[in-house]
Amino acid sequence: QVQLVESGGGLVQPGGSLRLSCVASGSIFSIDTMGWYRQAPGKQRELVAVITSGGSTNYADSVKGRFTISGDNAKNTVYLQMNSLKPEDTAVYYCNFLIRNGATITGYSGQGTQVTVSS
Question: In percent, how much of the chain has pLDDT > 90?
Answer without folding.
Answer: 92
